[in-house]
Amino acid sequence: MLCTVISGPSLALALKQVALGEPDSELFELRIDLLRDCNFTEISTLVDACSKPIVMTFREVVPSYFKELLELQPAYVDLDHHFSIDLFQKIRQTSPSTQTIRSWHSSESFPTCLEELYQGLKGEAIDLIKLCPTVQKTTEALELLCFQKKHPKKVISIAMGERGRPVRLLTVKFGSPFSYAAPSPEHRTAPGQLTAQEMNVCSSFSEISEETRLFGLIGTPLCKSIGDLAHNSAFDEFGYDAVYVKFELEEEELPLFFQQAEQLGIVGLSVTMPLKVAVLSYLTDLSPEAKKIGAVNTLYRKGSEWYGSNSDGAGASQALLQKTDLEGKKVALLGAGGAARAIAYRLKLVGAKVTVYNRTLSRAEKIADELGVEAAPLESLDDYEILVNCTPLSMPVAVEQLRSGTTVLETNIRPLESELVKAAEARGLKVVYGYEMFVEQAVLQWGIWFSDQFDYKLLRSFLYLVSQDHLLRKTAGML
User: Fold this and answer.
1) FRET label pair with 367: which of 17, 276, 354, 401, CA 20 to 30 Å apart?
2) Cα 305 to Cα 181: distance, rounded to the nearest angstrom
3) Which CATH superfamily is domain 231-313+446-475 in?
4) What's the whole-number mean pLDDT along residues 76-94?
5) Where are the alpha helices (DSSP H) in 248-287?
6) How far is CA 458 from the centre of its chain?
7) Where are the beta strands (DSSP E) in 73-187?
């Protein structure tokens, strides 16, 4: 269940928040500690306005009219851990149908032992323990989810901070009775908190269950990725009980992450910068193409073993073929990362003449030596028919280096129109957008994850529509 947090502080604002949360919520949390402009009569009015069950939450103190609030029969009462057990017993006596929650919050370092903390918080007349640590790493967030999985229906886990978002999205899958959301972006009450709408857009939250298959994206930064939006929309459209979540991950977290991924039942992953090469040592085997490229963008798990593949190169070539021929064409490929390796390999395979350009020439030469293509310093960029930007830069070349009659592939998805794309369009060049390559490689990922048990053409058309619509709305400031 999704619980929308109502924080006021006035009755008028609280009623507005209830109206905003109504479409996506199954519970409302009334933060009595934050509804500081409301008296008992106004809170009673607020309770009447809520069409869903109520969680009443108290942090520092309980008001003088606490007993009267209990007589309103909330579904849950949430008290901070510093309150005495006697108060929990009083709730049980006054409102026997109300479930009690004992909460622990921390903005400090992640607890050294979650089990010890949990056992110390349990007590008579306490129905649920709520753990809300602040996390600095995704692996801390996943440790909390692993703990949640061990204590289904007894713990509510919420990780605060931007790296804690996977917990907010997945805690119900692993046995938490509910998760929390803000009614709107301006009414967030905790760091990393998502809105109710974001919860459903990012993960189709309302459909997640214990049986839901878990996929995700690893790398950093992930703020420009549309993978969760696209894959989750497709899961919904084509009837897959699956969810795709972003895991913002540093390279040093990989050893622990793969242990946690098995515990949590993650079955497939997309991989982005800077992990496309770093993950190789954790894989049992690679597809033939991934072996030759030396980088992966797609992982799948069999038992306790992980396998890697790469759809970046094929995705780029398919996207380019919608606008131009490739055989015999001179391709200038900018950048020397994992995506550049994959695209260089695939374009050479289909007969293009590839030169890798990079500011650090030695990195370009390494790819050239391993894949049998050419290398050159970026400042020497000149003779080409197709330009592929595999750098994170919005404008990696000077405008005067854009040649007439050429095709430009921008591999970055956001913004929809990078400075390079704008300059290319202004000169009348053919442009392949980042989302077009994304769609082509995403369809190939489905083939790896789901063994071709879907209609490629329908999926491809759907992903094009969803991706383009989202990016256009984002550009127009509608999201």
Assistant:
1) 401
2) 35
3) Leucine Dehydrogenase, chain A, domain 1 (3.40.50.10860)
4) 95
5) 254-264
6) 24
7) 76-80, 99-106, 128-133, 155-157, 179-181
Are 231-313+446-475 and 314-437 equal in CATH topology?
A: yes
Give the whole-angstrom CA distance, residue 399 versus residue 381: 12
CA distance linking residue 339 with residue 341, whole number of Å = 5
| Fold (CATH) for 314-437 | Rossmann fold (3.40.50)
Is residue 276 annotated as part of the catalytic site, yes or no? yes
Q: Please, what CATH class does the domain formed by 2-210 belong to?
A: alpha beta
Two tokens at 78?
Answer: 């949430």
Half-sphere exposure of 270 (CA within 13 A, CB side): 29
Sketch the domain layout of the chain as residue ranges.
Answer: 2-210, 231-313+446-475, 314-437
Residue 104 clears pLDDT 60, i.e. is over it: yes
Strand pairing category for 386-389 and 374-377: unpaired
Tokens standing for residue 380:
């020497």
Question: Could you tell me where the DSSP H helices lie in 356-455?
Answer: 361-371, 419-426, 434-450
pLDDT above 70: residue 75: yes
Contact 29, 55 (CB under 8 A): yes
Cis amide linkage into residue 221, ω under 30° from 0 = yes
Taking the mean position of all CA atoms in its chain, how far away is CA 119? 31
- How far apart CA 379 and CA 364 sit, in angstroms, is 13
Distance of CA 222 to the CA centre of its chain: 8
- Spatial contact of 333 and 381, defined as CB atoms under 8 Å apart: no
Q: How confident is the model at residue 479 (pLDDT cuts 50, 70, 90)?
A: low
Instruction: Tell me the β-bridge partners of 245.
Output: 216
